[in-house]
Amino acid sequence: MITFEPTPFSAIPKADWVSLADARAVPIDPGMKEAFVANGPAVGNVQRLLDGALCVTTGQQPGLFTGPLFTLYKALTASAFARSLEGIVHRPVIPVFWVAGDDHDFAEANHCYVLDAQGELAELELRRRDPNSALVPLYKEPLGPEIEPALERLDAALPESEFRASARDWLRRHYQPSANFASAFAGGLAELLGSQGVVVFQPSHPAAKRRMAPVLARALTDARALDHALSKRAKALVAAGREAPVTVGDGATLVMIEARLGRDRLVLNDGRYTTRRTGETWEPAVLSGLLDREPDRFSANVLLRPVVEAAILPTLAYVGGPGELAYLEQADPLYERLGVHPQARLPRWSGRALEPRVLRALEKYHVSADVLIREGARLEAELLREEIPPRAREAFQSLRQGIQTHYSTILAAATQVDPTLQKTVESARNAALAGVQDVEKRVVAHLKKRNDVATAQLTRARTSLAPQGRPQERVLGVVSFLARYGTPFIDQAMGAVAAWAESLEPAHRGS
User: Fold this and answer.
1) Which of 92, 120, 148, 433 is the Cys-Cys partner for 53 at CB 3.0 to 4.6 Å?
2) What's the whole-model pTM score?
């Protein structure tokens, strides 16, 4: 059985959830129904959203084989908070996962890490994109024929288990040559998380793009004022010792366009809009017409994206990691200026999965996960020493000296009795010394074997807990655990997340 150990990065804040629920009751455009993907028990949740339910959202850019563990933890956190908030606001609340398919960071999405049968880290890479090629959004990036050998490499890397085939088949149903990164990711997550009620939203769907267009149009029209407000906000955050992760104040708009070299940032320059990389230019009226005719070419940048979401979905709260929460804090001025009531912000669950073999190693060598991660190299180096413990080494040396001393006395007495006994006594002495040496060699050999086993066990445990020296949740793919433990892994993870999310409380419950 897996043990989940939380590593929280932020406390769960309080909010006036009842009042916020009233403010965030944004009706969903029925035309966006096809933008939602759901499986199993979550299918009914799509209609509940269309009928007026609120939602707790989270999101992530697509990744190969559904990406690292924190993607799962985000979705489960949204599900756990949705359940808790239903009891607080007395309205249906649905967990929704926003697939950021407009993202163009192919180098981030094209690979996945798993633990192989030997417990070593294995990287699975689909292919690489030419640095000079267009920055194609991931919802337009096909998996292509390379996905088949990638799936075969995955199958070869995963250990034999009763769950390996089902994990492999789950991915094969979605990661097919004709699929794109976003659709494969969305389908895989929807199937995996349907049991937890999670609905997957594809904002790259044409219906969603059309619904976003008015917000993007306003962001373009008010680009100068928004940039000024964001610049002022960034200065205030820095002055307060906070983080302002996105560069602002340089005249760039908050809108991206698919241009000649792929996804590009629009910059307002002398009353016209210009792409940052290619220099393509549009007059405001021309760009506005293009947005009306081809909304699929436009998308929000990282600061505008949560505002767009809040404008088109009844989001009660957004669940994010530390970086996303910093983006949201920096984006605060956009909500008021664009006429959107902000959603609340909640941290995702953060932690690590401790496999039974990892727990056994930690218990055997009396070390905690934190100590092994922090001081693993030192611990392993100590175990590599093949020296006999000091007390044993002193005993061996004392025994040799004693044999030499006592046999010298015996030799002197024996040769006085009969000189021919000299060789007999010396042979006995040499045999005794050889016996001591043999025992010492055997002790050293067993120490080396034991140390090699210990080093291997601790190394494998550390690789599981902190692969590449990074948090487990940011490196290892979900499939690595599904292939070992099956879907019960999801249920156990949900149990850990739900227990943590129970501390959610309103600032006041209202009347």
Assistant:
1) 92
2) 0.88
